[in-house]
């Protein structure tokens, strides 16, 4: 897979934040060596987040995000500020850009000071370094506000300090990468994993969906053997391979069909369950799905997807999941849906959130959404776990994870 083909869910996000005309767009343009963001002396030129994918060594594939000014004004300005703050919530690193030529640098620092407490690498980038007279004094002043944040003096004109800032961000993101993969710790050399992949009208033409690709790559990285089949060929393949199969991984939508074919002696799980483990939210998702059994009917359920796609007849989020839930409970509910980067800031109206696996979202983005749900005391689960629960095979599908499986008895 080429660099440009690296999915957004596997890219660390670096967000540039600051007041209008602080130099965010100029700095990002200098860092990527392209005139991507529009630069103008007119305040508020950047009205929506601007994204640029690139490789930042030693971190690897990243996406840099230029944002509107945090001091924007008026009704539209308020919306732009919300967009900037939303981008900051999902950042893996933050660059707080301050205008070093202005007299209000203290006020600019106050704008971003509260954003530096997210436990992510953060950096102060003071622009117009060529006109700053007393850098040592300014550095000391900012250090008092910045805490653990590093301070860099940069110039988008001369390039001063820009490479140093890029290197520092790259090192910080690289040191936080644990090199995990979808099947880490589950596959060893020589293990055979059978992947059951339905090819129907919802399958993308000519390719596999991302979790399926990642599973194959993870198996190969761990020196295992990957065998991909359609559900109609599964029985004959298992008949040939027998006990040599280490595990079967299936698409959630055909859980029940596959479970009837796979012997109890062979562990069975789904791409969604593996994705929940990979994104760090498997335990919360298993706890969350149990809320369904206590519903009286009429509750509001949010079904959220991390990507955008054309919905077709039989769409899993808008048609299949609501139908399965109604059939399982014998009750009706109010279903609402979000896609892509949209996720409600107020989750209090909901009794349950059912999220996709999040293959197009970073681990940090998924954890942010799960944290928001927890802070609102709203249970949250994912597609695959919900489907396994609704079809009565959740316990079996968690057999590879006995510690998580034990949560079902709590």
Structure description:
- The protein is an alpha/beta fold and 410 residues long.
- It folds into 3 domains: 173 residues, P-loop containing nucleotide triphosphate hydrolases (Rossmann fold); 84 residues, Rossmann fold; 115 residues, Rossmann fold.
- The protein contains 15 helices and 14 strands.
- A 6-stranded mixed β-sheet has the order 2-3-1-4-5-6, sandwiched between helices.
- It is globular and about 75 Å long.
- It starts with 11 loop residues before the first strand and ends in a 5-residue tail after the last helix.
Chart the SSEs and their pairings.
Blueprint: E1 12-18, H1 24-32, E2 50-56, E3 60-66, H2 74-89, E4 93-99, H3 105-113, E5 122-127, H4 135-146, E6 150-153, H5 162-175, E7 192-196, H6 210-221, E8 225-229, H7 234-241, E9 245-250, H8 255-261, E10 268-270, H9 271-278, H10 282-289, E11 300-304, H11 316-329, E12 334-338, E13 352-355, H12 363-375, E14 380-382, H13 383-390, H14 394-397, H15 402-405
Parallel strand pairs: 1-3, 1-4, 4-5, 5-6, 7-8, 7-9, 9-10, 11-12, 11-13, 13-14
Antiparallel strand pairs: 2-3
């Amino acid at each position: 897979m080429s660099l440009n083909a690296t999915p957004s869910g596997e890219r660390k996000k670096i967000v540039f934040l600051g007041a209008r005309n602080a130099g965010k767009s100029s700095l990002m343009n200098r860092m990527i060596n392209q005139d991507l963001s529009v630069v103008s002396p007119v305040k508020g030129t950047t009205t929506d987040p601007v994204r640029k994918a690139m490789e930042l060594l030693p971190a690897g594939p990243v996406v840099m995000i230029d944002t509107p000014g945090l001091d924007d004004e008026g009704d539209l300005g308020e919306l732009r500020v919300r967009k900037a703050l939303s981008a900051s919530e999902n950042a893996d690193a933050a660059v707080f850009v301050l205008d070093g030529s202005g007299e209000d640098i203290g006020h600019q620092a106050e704008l971003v000071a509260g954003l530096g407490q997210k436990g992510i690498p953060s950096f102060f980038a003071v622009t117009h370094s060529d006109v700053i007279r007393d850098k040592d004094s300014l550095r000391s002043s900012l250090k008092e506000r910045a805490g653990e944040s590093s301070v860099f003096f940069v110039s988008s004109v001369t390039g001063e300090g820009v490479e140093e800032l890029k290197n520092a961000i790259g090192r910080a993101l690289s040191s936080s990468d644990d090199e995990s993969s979808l099947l880490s710790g589950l596959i060893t050399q020589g293990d055979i994993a059978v992947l059951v992949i339905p090819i129907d009208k919802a399958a993308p033409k000519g390719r596999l969906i991302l979790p399926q690709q990642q599973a194959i790559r993870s198996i190969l990285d761990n020196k295992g053997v990957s065998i991909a089949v359609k559900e109609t060929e599964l029985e004959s393949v298992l008949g040939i391979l027998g006990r040599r199969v280490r595990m079967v991984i299936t698409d959630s939508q055909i859980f029940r069909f596959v479970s009837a074919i796979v012997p109890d002696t062979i562990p069975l799980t789904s791409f969604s369950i593996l994705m929940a483990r990979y994104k760090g939210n498997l335990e919360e998702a298993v706890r969350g799905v149990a809320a369904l059994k206590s519903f009286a009917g009429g509750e509001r359920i949010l079904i959220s997807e991390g990507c955008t796609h054309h919905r077709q007849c039989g769409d899993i989020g808008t048609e299949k999941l609501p139908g399965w839930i109604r059939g399982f409970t014998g009750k009706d509910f109010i279903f609402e849906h979000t896609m892509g980067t949209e996720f409600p800031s107020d989750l209090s109206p909901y009794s349950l959130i059912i999220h996709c696996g999040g293959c197009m979202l970073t681990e940090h983005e998924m954890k942010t959404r799960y944290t928001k749900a927890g802070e609102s005391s709203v249970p949250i689960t994912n597609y695959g776990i919900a489907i396994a629960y609704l079809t009565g095979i959740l316990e079996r599908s968690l057999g590879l994870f006995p510690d998580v499986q034990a949560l079902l008895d709590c």
